[in-house]
Write the structure tokens for this entry.
Amino acid sequence: MMTPLKKTVLLLLPFVLISCWGPEKTAEETKKEQKTMKAKDTPELRERLKAFNAQEHRLEFTDCELRYNGKPFFIGDTLEEVEAVLGKHDYNRGIGYYWKNIKMRAIVNKKSSKLTSINIHINKGTTDVIFPDDNYILVYGIPLNRNIIFKDFLDSTNYTFDDLDFFKHDYNFIANNCNQNNKELTLYFDSPVPYDYKGGGHIQLRGKFRPDKTKPVDEISFQYSDNTDE
């Protein structure tokens, strides 16, 4: 004969299993994860692409790779492999290696000598090493420089702000199909994120996001999730 305790366990078991597994992803969530940033073909885009192609130094990000003047390199490459594409670095501070003309800093792991992240300086640089200029970089084929506010950049793509994660100082999204050892490649756009605020000091309250007040991008960072310098 089944005891009351056994009956209770059997009744609770399906709910426990459902709770552990969690709900399945909806088709909309799956579609959002698979979305890739693409450029809208406009006269302004074509003019900016023409200017980009005329530059001496052309840096771009496309899917899982970076390219310099058409030659690819990757997060995870050794410093030697990267310098074969970019040329010898101009300056280094500890684990940071700088290329002045490309406006780029690479962070290199001490033990492996491999790149763990890069920063591309657009509007704000390091005053004694990198001085930003008006050159474009390409992100998924979309030109971006220090004169373009983030809303205008995003409006030239198939993305909306709902496709991004953003906080107070940056916007970011995961690059598709770039998993590496269960890590995801993330692109961070360093730019102040505008909100309506009420009050001040310790009692300041954040209101709604204001896309009409976005600012230019200071720099872009690329790195895999939970990268650490060992």
User: Anything to note?
Assistant: The CA atoms of residues 191 and 217 lie 5 Å apart. The two ends are 60 Å apart (CA to CA).
